[in-house]
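Aim 2, interim progress: modelling of the iron/sulfur cluster-bound target.
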Amino acid sequence: MTRDEIIEQLAVKDPAALFAEADRVRKENVGDAVHLRGLIEFSNVCGKDCLYCGLRRSNRHVGRYRMEVDEIYATARQAVALGYKSVVMQSGESCQYPTDDMCRLVARIKSDLNLAVTLSIGEKTRAEYAALKDAGADRFLLRFETSSEKLFGELKPDSSYEERMRCLGWLRELGYQVGSGIMVGLPGQTLAMIADDILLMKKLDLDMIGIGPFIANPQTPLEGSSCGTLDLTLRTLAVIRIVTRNTHLPATTAMGSIDKQGRQKALKCGANVLMPNVTPTKYRAQYQLYPGKICIEDKPGDCFLCISGMVKMLGRTIADDPGHSLKR
Ligand code: 5AD
Ligand code: SF4
Ligand code: FES
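Predicted structure of the complex, ligand included:
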């Protein structure tokens, strides 16, 4: 699709045909199996001050936590007990964990638990990414959030777009399966910008792409801004599926948080991945990037039952392999 065609689809009056085509492309390229990635939100400490995010360092309303390495390991073991073949370890940025400790943890999870390990811990040096890869990390998620350099600069005052792109390049060179993505409906974001985001995703030849609606957080400077809609998020997802063919695309927690059926709808217009939360319940309320986040009172087993029921209701199956990239 050209840029103009993408913009046209993002604005199309009735998206039914777009969604049907995305569902067809999903089935043809990645099949009916849904991959589950157990999400471990292991620390909400963050050194950055992104305007949209509840974990930003200036937010005094959050009680900060950092799980001990042994507790993270035990949580990964619980993911295995629930049948998950992969985990995503996520935290705020500029972590307090020495890289050596993280490497030992990753190596232990890899050797004892045989899980595919995805890291989502923000910008690091090339040497740190290399050490974590050597320790056994398979994948890395680092959303570029928006391809508009101007908007990026406004929303992430202590990051640079150039550095973000450099990080994504390093991750690729080092042999990670690379995931990135955006928020839909950011203040100041236009359909043309989203079209450019999608073309950049294609150019980066991403293995995984995560997107979600922007949800205004009252504990941040973007309090009172209008939120992204599920409708535009699903259109964006559908176009990404059609343009990128065999990428792994999650039905994200943010989609499920702005609409009770958000994830189910996403699975019907391009998505093939779900990320059940396995974080211990006592931490969940403190890991709120945005208000209204689902699952904060649930236990890992509740999310497993909820998500396996969802997959069954949709007539899909749960994949029994780790769901590595289909691109390489
Ligand atoms: N609304 C929606 N998504 C958000 N994220 C952070 N803050 C918000 C918000 N207020 C997303 C960002 C980040 C990911 C982990 O969560 O895209 O990369
Ligand atoms: Fe920190 Fe990430 Fe939130 Fe930015 S989006 S404030 S880097 S946790
Ligand atoms: Fe957590 Fe539904 S996925 S309760």
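The pocket of 5'-deoxyadenosine (ligand 1) is lined by residues 52-53, 143, 145, 183, 212, 214-215, 217, 254, 289-290 (CB under 6 Å). The mean pLDDT is 98.
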